[in-house]
Design brief:
heterodimer; A: mainly alpha; Rna Polymerase Sigma Factor, Chain: A; 3-stranded antiparallel β-sheet; 10 helices; disordered N terminus; B: Immunoglobulin-like; 4-stranded antiparallel β-sheet; about 35% helix; extended; RNA_pol_sigma-70_dom (chain A); transcription (chain A); RNA polymerase sigma factor (Modular protein) (chain A); transcription regulation (chain A)
């Protein structure tokens, strides 16, 4: 079986980026009598990247390191594509948005240094904001139809919150302190990028009422999160 | 609080405006204003960042979905394909090439009705190698034949050991595609499930395993060669 021996470090990026770097090997290199190959024996392990690894990739991307950019894409594109799909609800458009998002990441990776966000959250924020900008540009007129056709997401049950764990557990606990329909509006707005206008139709309240609801909800959320 | 007070984003102050931007509820023109302020006003940018931090745990709910390989190819084309050189138009070789290409295109146009209709079948290629190892393979995935063809370039397996081929998609653990038969070239038939994943783009890797392949279903020996599948 795979067993960790000694401590492990990422392999350097050269040659074929992508594959090699996702195997981590132990620093205790042993040679055996099998020929030319160093034997990592039992200590070859397969690990997903840590936030620190992702940070390093973003920093290297800001220095126009293409191998790092390729690996960053490999590691994070599925999450970012998931965000684009959820907001845009159209595969073709989500693919285009993802292209633009990674072009942005390539050109603006240096901004990461000034953000307080975790690396993956920083990347997701770029994707989410870009997808929301796109959907606003696209479908202001169709909002009413879309909103009427769509069924509200069910609130995540306690099991979902428990699975999510940690930080998300905290935000869901704070959302629970809000009235049910307001918490649902906050979640819908955040995850799907719904506008005040769409939410007002969905929840059958005037736009200004929705605005007041959400502003108060945001202030309550902050108060709860900072408690 | 009266409705009048709630009318514009300004009335809630910068902090609420930042919060509304991050939440995603603003209309197109308001988002435009917010984006410009993020660029120009560091204090406002910090307010936005703080709200991104507060609300970002909700993004855990986004499911991961592997994008198709064409997305990365399009990104690479947009970012890295060199512009045609200025000297191109005056290059004799270019015009000769163009003339030859025109003749070839004409020939194809004439012959096309007599040829088989083209079938959209992806062909992907990968060059497999790794630092610290002299093992090299060239791999070609032929979707029509449902096989991966391997050409052995260099590096021998040790006595009593086998090379095993692995497919890695996204962040998933490696999936075995079988022990590579010894010899200059090898053809490995692949299952429909693996085929479907290969079409989306994957990494191929070769590991050194005990004779007959890994006993655990995961690589147990060193990865001696690896590379990305790219379309040609």
């Amino acid at each position: 079986m795979l067993k960790k021996v000694g401590y492990c470090s990422s392999m350097e990026a050269h040659g074929a980026p992508g594959a090699k770097e996702r195997f981590r090997r132990c620093n205790t290199l042993q040679w055996n009598n099998l020929g030319q190959l160093p034997n990592f024996g039992n200590c070859l392990i397969w690990q997903p990247m840590t936030p620190q690894d992702i940070s390093n990739l973003i920093v290297r991307t800001s220095m126009k390191d293409r191998a790092a950019f390729d690996l960053l894409y490999r590691q994070t594109s599925a999450k970012l594509f998931g965000a684009c799909l959820r907001v845009l609800k159209d595969r073709g458009e989500a693919e285009e948005a993802l292209q633009e998002v990674f072009v942005k990441i390539w050109t603006k990776a240096d901004r990461f240094a000034v953000s307080e966000l975790s690396p993956i959250s920083w990347l997701v924020a770029i994707a989410r904001n870009h997808a929301i900008d796109r959907i606003r540009a696209r479908r202001e007129p169709a909002a009413y139809i879309d909103a009427a056709l769509e069924v509200a997401d069910p609130a995540p049950g306690p099991e979902a919150a428990a699975v999510a764990g940690g930080e998300s557990e905290r935000i869901y606990r704070c959302l629970d302190e809000l009235e049910k329909d307001r918490a649902a509006a906050v979640r819908g707005a955040y995850l799907k990028g719904e506008s005040y206008a769409e939410l007002a139709v969905r929840h059958d309240v005037p736009l200004n009422t929705m605005r007041t609801w959400l502003r108060r909800s945001l202030l309550k959320l902050r108060e709860c999160l900072e408690r | 609080m009266t409705l009048a007070q709630d009318d514009g984003p300004e009335s809630g102050g910068d902090d609420l405006f930042a919060a509304e931007y991050v939440l995603g509820v603003l209309a197109a023109d308001e988002r435009e204003i917010a984006s410009r302020r993020i660029e120009a006003d560091a204090a406002f940018a910090r307010l936005v960042d703080a709200w991104e931090v507060r609300l970002s745990p909700m993004a855990d709910a986004y499911p991961e979905t592997e994008p198709p390989i064409r997305v990365k190819e399009a990104i690479d084309r947009r970012l890295f394909v060199a512009e045609p050189r200025a000297g191109l138009w005056s290059s004799l070789a270019f015009w000769r090439g163009l003339a030859a290409a025109s003749v070839a295109a004409l020939a194809i146009t004439i012959a096309a009705p007599y040829l088989n209709p083209p079938v959209e079948q992806p062909r992907l290629i990968a060059s497999l190698s790794a630092g610290g190892s002299d093992v090299r393979y060239l791999a070609v995935y032929d979707a029509a034949r449902r096989e991966v063809g391997l050409s052995h370039v260099s590096g021998e397996r040790a006595a009593g050991k086998d090379f095993e081929l692995w497919m890695i998609v996204g962040k998933n653990p490696p999936v075995s595609m079988g022990v590579i038969p010894a010899g200059q070239t090898a053809h490995m038939t692949i299952s429909p499930a693996v085929q479907e994943k290969l079409a989306q783009g994957a990494v191929l890797a070769v590991s050194l395993e005990p004779a007959g392949g890994s006993p655990t279903g995961q690589p147990t020996g060193p990865v001696v060669a690896a590379g990305d599948l790219k379309s040609i």
